Design the sequence.
């Protein structure tokens, strides 16, 4: 019994010595990934997928625990990291444009994009608009016609807070279709899983989400995707679904899937996680997983990702003003 119980510790020691021999000093202990929303949504998907492959590919020595931290469109998790775990080298946090939208709008209180360190992005997801499988609308055109005729009868769910990325998808579609933005009924939920459940339960008429989180329900026939918000058609079950651009509505929404860490973590810890994400993103196993999940490759890690985040926050601040979400 003693020998069996010591095996994980011996493996961890061997793994640590191997990294030290390669010049890598930091080794994570009890690593954790925070998904800033409930189970079933994009952040949860990001954490669990990356955690699984990072461990299976032996890029981390121990399984990564996933913690769902709901609230404030990601603000609760952001505040938690900034105020309590800024120096925790064992923590990574899932992020996406939902994070940068809220930062652009000042929705995380006094905290800004400079209060964390941006680690990297490892995949690209895409927005979409879906209705129930038994809904009366067969096409995006039919849905928009009904929406425009009486906006009060159409409620659309999303996994982000009011003003967040799913809300912005809805507003962009409404603007392209000539629907008054003030008449839009958007119903926010804590994560795409809850928002999709609301659609399936008949509490809303449509769902603004992402391809990865919707794929299972699409394949089961429970939902009908009216259009994707990608620049070209996606593969797998989405290959027959037109893009909004194809249908004459110039709306696209690319969802990077990535992570941030505490601002005060040691340099070697940041380097460790950066290299782990790079190796993950470049592995054939991850590439196959992306294809199976209706995702596309996207690799941006370290300093270039910081530049990207700064630009996106500025772009979203401008767009938020255009849509009347901020002044």
Sequence:
């Amino acid at each position: 019994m003693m020998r069996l119980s010591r095996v994980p510790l011996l493996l961890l020691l061997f793994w640590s010595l191997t990294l030290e021999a390669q010049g890598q000093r930091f080794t994570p202990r009890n690593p954790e990934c925070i998904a800033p929303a409930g189970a079933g949504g994009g952040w949860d998907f990001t954490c669990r997928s990356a955690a699984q492959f990072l461990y299976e590919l032996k890029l981390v020595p121990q399984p990564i625990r996933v913690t769902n931290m709901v609230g404030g469109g990601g603000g609760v998790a952001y505040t938690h990291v900034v105020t309590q775990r800024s120096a925790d080298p064992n923590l990574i946090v899932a992020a996406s444009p939902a994070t940068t939208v809220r930062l652009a709008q000042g929705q995380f209180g006094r905290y800004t994009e400079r209060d964390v360190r941006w680690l990297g992005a490892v995949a690209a997801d895409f927005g979409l608009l879906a209705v129930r499988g038994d809904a009366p609308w067969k096409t995006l055109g039919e849905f928009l016609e009904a929406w425009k005729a009486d906006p009060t009868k159409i409620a659309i769910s999303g996994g982000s807070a009011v003003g967040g990325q799913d809300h912005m998808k809805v507003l962009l579609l409404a603007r392209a279709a000539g629907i008054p933005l003030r008449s839009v009924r958007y119903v926010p939920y804590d994560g795409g899983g809850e928002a999709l459940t609301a659609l399936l339960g008949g509490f809303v008429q449509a769902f603004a989400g992402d391809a990865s989180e919707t794929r299972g329900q699409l394949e089961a026939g429970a939902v009908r995707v009216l259009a994707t918000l990608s620049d070209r058609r996606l593969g797998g079950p989405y290959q027959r679904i037109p893009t909004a651009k194809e249908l004459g509505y110039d709306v696209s929404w690319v969802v990077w899937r990535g992570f941030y860490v505490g601002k005060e973590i040691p340099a070697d810890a940041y380097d460790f996680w950066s290299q782990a994400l790079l190796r993950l993103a470049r592995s054939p196993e991850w590439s196959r997983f992306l294809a199976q999940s209706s995702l596309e490759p996207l690799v941006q890690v370290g300093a270039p990702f910081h530049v990207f985040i700064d630009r996106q926050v500025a772009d979203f601040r401008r767009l938020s003003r255009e849509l009347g979400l901020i002044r």
